[in-house]
Amino acid sequence: MRTLKRIKSQDKAVQSAALFSSSRRVRFIAVACAVVFLLVFCQLNSSVLWLQGISISLHQESTGLKGRSYTKTAEAIDNLLGGLLSPNFDEQSCQSRYQSSAYRKPSPHKPSSYLVSRLRNYEELHKRCGPKSPLYQKSIHQLKSGHSMGLMECNYLVWSPFNGLGNRMMTIASAFVYALLTNRVLLLHITEDMLDLFCEPFPDSTWVLPSDFPVKDLEKLNLGSEQTYGNYLKNKKIKTDVKVMAESLPPYVYLHLEHDYQHLDRLFFCDNDQQVLAKVNWLLIKSDIYFVPGLFFLSLFEDELKWMFPERETVFHHLSRYLFHPTNSVWGMITRYYISYMAKADEKMGIQIRTFSWMPISIENFANQILACSWQENLLPSINQNMTQAGTNGGRTKAVLVTSLNSEYCEKMKSMYYEHTTSTGEIISFSQPSHEETQHTEKQTHNQKALAEMFLLSYCDVLVTSGWSTFGYVAQGIASLKPWILLSPKDQKAPNPPCRRAMSMEPCFHAPPSYDCKANKNVDFGAILRHVKHCEDVGNGIKLYD
Model confidence at 242, in pLDDT bands (50, 70, 90)? Predict the structure, then answer.
C-alpha cells in the first residue's frame, strides 16, 4: 500500500511539473508572439513611411517638381492647406483637391483659425440643410407658401450663372462669403455648360440645386424682374423697416448684382437693408462682379470679416482654394499639359491675353505692349538682333505659358525667341494650350479648357495679365501673386507705361456702390478708393455704371 501511495504521489508530482512546464511554455509563446508582432508592426510602419516617401518622390519626378527650388518632402506638403480643406473626402474621387498644392510654391498666407472653424461649422450646416435633407424639404414647403416665415432653421442663397467662367468663379466666391456672414446655405444652379467642372466642396452633401426647384427660369431673372430687391422697394412691397415681420415679406427675393445694377439694388450694401433681407428665407442671386469688397462697407459684417480674414487681401485666395477643385477629367488636362510643357523649366511665366471690343487694339500693337512690359520689368530677357550663336547661361530655362483666344501672340513671341539668342543666354520656350478664337461660355468643353488654363497660370512664378480680365483675376488669386497688369489701350495704341504691378492679388470690384448709406447721399471717388485700391487696371482706379 505504501508503495502504491508513493507511486501515486510521484505521478501527481510529475503531472504538476508537467502542468507548470506547459504553463511556462504558453506564457513564453505568448510573449514571443507579442515581440514578433511588435517587430513586424514597426517594420510595416517603417515600410509604409518609406513607401509614402517613394510615392511622393515619384509624383515629384513625374510632374517635374523634384529638383525645383520649391521641392516638397513628405513632411512639407500640406495637402489640407493649413486646415482650409476638410480631410473627409475620398482622394480618388477628386484628385486635384489634395494634389494641386504640390504643383505650386507654398502660399505665404495661412488661413486664420477662426476661418477654419467657420468652414467646418458651415460644412455641418450644409450637411444638415442641404438638398434631400428633411429641413430642405421643409424650406421648399415654405417657398411654395407665398411668403417668408420666421424661425426657420435653414435659410438659403441660390446662385445662378452669368457671363464667363472667370466672372462665375468670382461671384460664387463672393456669394459664399455672403452665405457665411448670413448663416445661409449656398446652392448653385448648374447649367449644362458647367457640368464636370468642379468637384463638390462640402463633405457628405451637394451644392447643386435640385432640378425640381420650384422657381423656374432662374437664368432669365434680370434688372427688370419684379422680384428684384430694388423693384420690391420701388413698388413698396418691401419697406426698409428693421422691425418688419418675416411673414409680411415675399417667399424669395432676387438680388441683382450685375454690372448694370441701379441705386435701389445697390442698397444691398446698407446695414438696414441687410437686416430686412435677413428675414427672407430664400435669396436668389445673379452677378458678374466680385462684390466682396462691398461687404466691408457694412458695419454688420465688419468684425466677422476681420476675424475670418485678418489679411483682407486674402479673401479670394483662401476661398478659391477651398471651393474650386477641378474634376478628374479637367485635372487630367492640367497635369498632362504641365508635365509636357512646364515641369522641367527653372522658371515659369504666365501671360494672360484678353482684348475687348470696347477697347480695341491691333494684334501687332498689343504684342509689342506685352514685350515692352516683359522687357521693362525684366520678366523676359531681351533678344540679340545680330547674334546667332547659342547661349546657355548654365542651361537655365524659362517656360512661358500663353493663354489667349488668339494664337498669333504666342506664335509671334515663339518665333522671335527661336530665331534669336537672348541677352542673358537663357533658353525661352513658349506654349499655348488652346486658341478658341471666340469665347463660347455656353459650351462645356470651352469652360473645361478655360478652367484648366486658369490653374496652369496659377502654377507660374510670375504673371502678366490683361486689365479688366476676370480670367486673370482668378489665376492670380489662386496663386497668391501680384501680376503685372497690361494697361488698357488708348486710341487703339499701347499706353506708356505698358503695364503696372498690381497692388493686391484680390480681384477688382468693378462696379462698387457710390452711395453712403449713413449719410444718405452719394460720395466721391476718394471715399471709395480705399476699398478698391487694387483696381489700377481700370484707369483711374474705379469704374461706375450709372
Answer: confident
What is the predicted pLDDT for the residue at 512?
85
The one-letter amino acid code at 339 reads: I
- CA–CA distance, 55 with 164 (Å, rounded to integer): 38
How many helices (H) and strands (E) the chain has is answered by: 17, 14
For residue 128, what is its C-alpha cell? 444638415
Q: Please give the grid coordinates belonging to residue 519.
A: 449719410
The torsion angles phi and psi of 260, rounded to 5 degrees, stand at -95, 15
What CA–CA distances, in Å, run from 239 to 182, 245, 250, 274?
Answer: 20, 11, 12, 12
pLDDT at 442 over 70: yes
- Assess contact for 436 and 449: CB atoms under 8 A: yes
Q: What is the mean pLDDT of the chain?
A: 85
Map grid coordinates 449644362 to a residue: 192
Phi-psi region of 399 (alpha: psi -120 to 50; beta: other; left: phi over 0): beta
For residue 375, what is the enclosing H or E element?
helix 363-376
**β-pairing verdict for 421-422 and 499-501:** unpaired
Count other C-beta atoms under 10 Å from residue 66's C-beta.
15
Beta bridge partners of 184: none
Grid-cell match 444638415, residue found: 128
- Span 82-102, pLDDT tens digits: 999 999 999 999 999 999 999
Q: Which helix (H) or strand (E) holds 185?
A: strand 185-188
Beta bridge partners of 347: 398
Residue 510 burial (C-beta neighbours within 10 Å; 0-12, 13-18, 19+)? buried
Tally of residues, the chain: 546
| Closest to 328 (Cα-Cα) out of 436, 460, 431, 452 | 452
The CA–CA distances, whole Å, from 500 to 41, 465, 504 equal: 59, 10, 12
* Type of residue at 244: V
Do 125 and 185 touch, CB atoms closer than 8 A? yes
Q: What is the C-alpha to C-alpha distance for residues 40 and 111, in angstroms, rounded to an integer?
A: 40
Query: What DSSP string describes 1-68?
Result: -HHHHHHHHHHHHHHHHHHHHHHHHHHHHHHHHHHHHHHHHHHHHHHHHHHHHHHHHHHHHHHT-TTS
Task: Please name the amino acid found at residue 159.
Answer: W
Q: What is the full DSSP assignment across 69-127?
A: TT---TTT--TTTTTTS-S-S-GGGSHHHHHGGGGSPPPS-PPPHHHHHHHHHHHHHHH
- Cα-based distances in Å from 165 to 60, 352, 353, 441, 540: 30, 15, 15, 7, 26
pLDDT tens sequence across 34-74: 544 444 444 434 333 333 333 344 345 444 554 343 444 44
Asked if the peptide bond before residue 497 counts as cis, ω within 30 degrees of 0, the response is yes
